[in-house]
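step=encode ok
step=design start
structure_in=
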């Protein structure tokens, strides 16, 4: 990410306003179409989705959040965790 001018990476937990098939499908589609989202996961637990997002700067990320989260219906809240140091990226999958 740094080599292409996007040194910031964030993990973002997203909660949808309700469990509705159309809202979920629409959010999945938006994830696939958004270049800033490196990885997106539909998950169980505390959040509905976990996203890995890259940005050129915090200003760039703020613009992304306004465009992607605030203008999109069906999102209840999102929580951002800035990655300080990616310790283990795409480690090996154990094979038994």
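sequence_out=
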């Amino acid at each position: 990410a740094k080599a292409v001018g996007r040194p910031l990476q964030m993990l973002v937990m997203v909660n949808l306003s309700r469990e509705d098939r159309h809202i979920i499908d629409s959010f999945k589609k938006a994830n696939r179409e958004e270049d800033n989202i490196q990885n997106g996961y539909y998950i169980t637990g505390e959040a509905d989705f976990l996203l890995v997002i890259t940005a050129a700067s915090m200003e760039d990320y703020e613009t992304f959040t306004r465009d992607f989260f605030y203008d999109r219906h069906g999102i209840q809240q999102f929580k951002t965790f800035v990655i300080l140091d990616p310790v283990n990226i795409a480690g090996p999958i154990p094979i038994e």
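step=design ok
step=annotate ok -> The longest strand covers residues 8-16.
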